[in-house]
Amino acid sequence: MPAGGRNAIELHAGQVAVAMHEATEARSRQPQRIDDTPGFDAIEADRCPLTSRLRLSSRRFPHHAAVTLLLPEIDRQLPNTIVELSAELAHVAPRYRHIEFSLRKGQRLALTGPNGSGKSSVLKRIASASSHADSGCTVSVKAAYLDQSLSLLDAGRGLLEQMLALGSALDEADLRSRLALLGLDERDLQTPVRSLSGGERLKAALAYALYTDEPAKLLLLDEPDNHLDLAAIRALESLLQQYRGALIVVSHDEVFLNRIGLTHRLDAGEQGWRMSAWG
User: Pick the residue with more confidence: 190 or 14?
Assistant: First the structure.
């Protein structure tokens, strides 16, 4: 193997090893599971190569253990203006019909307001404009839209099969390593997505959007914390804190929103849509 190839593999293995060490440290602070047998991991680690050890470790991590997102520094690749929207929303009260705002580099935005004010419609409009010409909306980066049903995934197929079909430069071992660091084990990778828990499906959708040759630089999330238990919400918060791209999220949970590093709020109020600094 050429020296450059060995160096790349060693670098990746080093990143994974550091991330796994941090996850193991976090796990050591959690209550021990009944099936944790002292010395078991050490014995198996001597028998297995790196990828197998990662698979073993992820299988034995509880879902509330630390999760790690391995991505390049997306924030350095963002243009100054990411989204510009000026539109009239349909099927909303008159005060909510007109919406106009810009999302700039470094901004992470929450859309808030009552049900029926058009928050999901705004996300859909931006998602559509990211791949189709739209005179009222300009999106200058690759976006990933995670709607409430996570329809970017094929519910009848396993995550690993779908990700390999993307044709990513990452090989299967690399993908398995990164997915293990998200807390997705061998069973999760092979199980049809519809059979995963809410937290597992959300991790799978984020992986599908981000672990590609061109990771999404803008995430559009429609109530991602809905129907998740507390452990899954905490894992989601951690992943979004680690993600350094642009973000527009809809949620009614102020505690969740306060934990994901937002900079601004666009609120649908009595006077229509108003943007303000977060806090």
Answer: 190
Tell me which DSSP letter residue 95 carries.
G
Least confident of 11-25, 99-113, 256-270: 11-25
Question: Per residue in 25-41, pLDDT tens?
Answer: 544 444 443 334 344 34
- Which has the closest alpha carbon to 101: 114, 89, 93? 89
Q: What whole-number distance in Å separates Cα of residue 251 and Cα of residue 261?
A: 14
Question: Under the phi-then-psi rule, with left for phi > 0, alpha for psi from -120 to 50, and beta for the rest, what region is 197?
Answer: beta
Backbone Cα Rg of the chain: 20
E strand or H helix that includes residue 212:
none
0.90 exceeded by pTM: no
72 alpha-carbon distance from chain centroid? 14
Note whether 204 and 184 are within 8 A (CB): yes
d(CA 34, CA 93): 54
- CB 126 within 8 Å of CB 139: yes
Please list the helix, strand and coil fractions of the chain in percent, rounded to the nearest 5, in that order. 45, 20, 40
What is the rounded distance in angstroms from the CA atom of residue 70 to the CA atom of residue 14?
12
Question: 271 to each of 47, 95, 232, 263, 266, how far by Cα in Å?
Answer: 65, 7, 35, 22, 12
What six digits make up the tokens of 240? Answer: 């979004």
Q: How far is the C-alpha of 69 from the C-alpha of 22, rounded, in Å?
A: 12
